[in-house]
Design brief:
It contains 10 helices and 6 strands; from the N terminus they run H-E-H-E-H-H-H-H-H-E-H-E-H-E-E-H. By secondary structure, it is of the alpha/beta class. Strand 1, helix 2 and strand 2 form a beta-alpha-beta unit. The N and C termini lie far apart (65 Å).
């Protein structure tokens, strides 16, 4: 009989992103974490992606969300059945033939554990760890050809599972997530995607125009009830211009403050054109 996978104490301590994610904030954690308030009720991240900030903070109460159903399936399944995901990952081989066979699969026709393992496998073995789909929703990043990628990282998976089980995981648009869940005392981390390079593709261009999206997100806050704190992360290309290009502010009157912040961001955008 196959022995059950039993997490060691180390699995309860360390956590890191399960995926490499374009626009991920792992390299900026040293700038972001010190600006996060020490006390807050719940952590909310509606543009979750790879979740670098979440996995670094390890909040006791969290709501994480994304509008990518494949991504949300991964996190929900790791929370619910991490052993099943690990078992599936052990079947994969890092070969070009295997990669393209797995890439050709329709993840929506797989079980939750199979689909989650497929997502991890493709991310670990594709070129540069990109996540990109075509107009039909098919993953289209080529094989990476890496010598020895760590496809099955049990320590990270068990640690992530422990953390994710304590979190509410939602597949939804950011506006709905905030309108239906945000309450006074919550800390909201907003890291919106940048503008698409071309229609029908899900990868993003790190550009000044990406700031216009954040201005839009700010303006939408006047339809949401009171928040205590929120945090904006701006494109990395702005770091030389404004050292951290990120801010953490206390909010007493969200409609008034959000409009002020939206104007500030618009000014920053225009000043760099």
């Amino acid at each position: 009989m196959k022995a059950a996978l039993v997490p060691s104490p180390a699995h309860q301590v360390f956590s890191k992103p399960l995926l490499k994610w374009a626009g991920g904030k792992t390299q900026l954690l040293g700038e972001i974490i010190p600006k996060i308030p020490q006390n807050y009720s719940r952590y909310i991240e509606p543009f979750f992606g790879g979740g670098a900030v979440f996995f670094s903070l390890r909040p006791e109460k969290a709501i994480i969300a994304d509008n990518n159903p494949e991504l949300i399936n991964l996190y929900q399944t790791v929370a619910d059945d991490v052993e099943g995901v690990i078992a599936q990952l052990r079947h994969y081989e890092n070969t070009e033939e295997s990669f393209y066979a797995v890439r050709a699969q329709d993840w929506t026709k797989l079980s939750c554990t199979e689909a989650s393992a497929r997502t991890i496998f493709l991310n670990k073995t594709c070129y540069n760890g990109l996540y990109r789909v075509n107009k039909s929703g098919g993953f289209n990043v080529p094989f990476g050809g890496y010598k020895n990628p760590k496809i099955t990282d049990e320590v990270s998976l068990f640690a992530a599972s422990t953390l994710l089980r304590k979190s509410t995981i939602i597949c939804s648009d950011y506006k709905r997530v905030l309108q239906e869940n945000a309450e006074p005392g919550d800390f909201i981390f907003l890291d919106p995607p940048y503008l698409p390079i071309s229609e029908g593709h899900s990868h993003y261009k790190n550009t000044v125009l990406g700031l216009m999206l954040i201005s839009h997100h700010c303006r939408s806050f006047d339809r949401i009830s009171l928040f205590s704190r929120f945090f904006f992360s701006l494109p990395q290309s702005f770091i030389p211009f404004w050292y951290t290009v990120s801010m953490s502010i206390a909010v007493a009157d969200i409609p008034r403050q959000a409009k002020l912040l939206a104007r500030l961001i618009t000014v920053v955008t225009l000043s760099r054109r």
